[in-house]
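re: ur question from the group chat, yeah i did fold both. here u go
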Amino acid sequence: MSNSDRIKQIKMFLNDSPHDEFMNYALATEYIALGHDQEALELFEKLVSMSPLYFATYYHLGKLYEKMGNTGSAISIYEKGLSVTKKLNENHAYAELKGAYDALIY
């Protein structure tokens, strides 16, 4: 199945459940795979706002900010993600965010 076919399927699902965290996340990652960074950015930012405890978003949004040359926003989103993952005791996600954060600021 191609990325565009997956995007069509995800969008159909989102028509019925527009606030589904995983489906919004999945759609954003499909957009990244196709190089549609602006669409991915909008979805990730919406997801962080809508579901701030959906911690998987922070790493990918930070990396997207880095790719787009927005270092300040990347640092900020990594810091928020570190706070969330620490609070949720998500040690693996915390370590990934910490590695990305440290690589950016040091």
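okk and heres the other one u asked abt
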Amino acid sequence: MTAVHLDAGALPLVDGDLSDWEGLTPALRMSAFNDLVTGADIDTEDFDVKVWIGWSDSANRLYVAVEVVDDIHQVDRPAGTAVTKIFQDDDLEVFIDADHSGGQFADFSDLGPQEQLARNGAEANHFVLAGPHEDGEEFVNFSAAGWYALADGPYTEAHVRYEGDSGGPGVTRYEMSLVPFNRVNVTADFLSVPHDLHAEEVLGFNLELSDYDTRSELFDAKWSLSGAFNAFRLSERFTDLWLEPPARATAIEDLTWGRIKASLGP
């Protein structure tokens, strides 16, 4: 799977309006996903998806845009419960292991509370975006560092738009960007270790999409890019994301620039 390089002058505005991505071929379609609940066959009349993935060398960011066509869009959690119940809504989940180190990164239930807090989300991260919601709380870092999950923050941006009937058919558009870290400290950004994105490297990456229909406690499907269980705790259950190098100048462009430089010589 490939993330296309985005030039400095062509970075998308992260606002849930995916018109910025027009002209780019989606990196993924529904055929790339597997249902983790019952292994259901794909039915694009029930649920369909397009995914665009980009990266920026100049901004040192990953960009993800997802369009979901769903026969029933369900976002019905009580106000103020995003931290604990956002997973009972239709959502987009983005997983990133920037240094591709693998290993357990969350759900350390065998450890004490303080050590759990220190280790959850330190080596990889799990973001959830679901909405729109009346309380405005639509973006959560399931791996504990609240400073690393702000809808309009210095390291993350995330927005969701919905077009359709409440509780009925419609189109949800998710968009987010993130600055990657090799190690995240739950306390502060300056105690964390940033990751410098570069062309042709491979990151650990995964997407999951929850599809609820009539009941918030019962999945209709859980569509996973990696197709592996327990990605919420083990980053080796992610898949690979290759960063495409910037487009190179054509031979004609190189020749033209060479003539211009020659014309400026003594």
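fwiw on the second one: The first helix runs from residue 82 to 85. Residues 2-263 form a domain with the Immunoglobulin-like fold (CATH 2.60.40.1190). idk if thats what u expected
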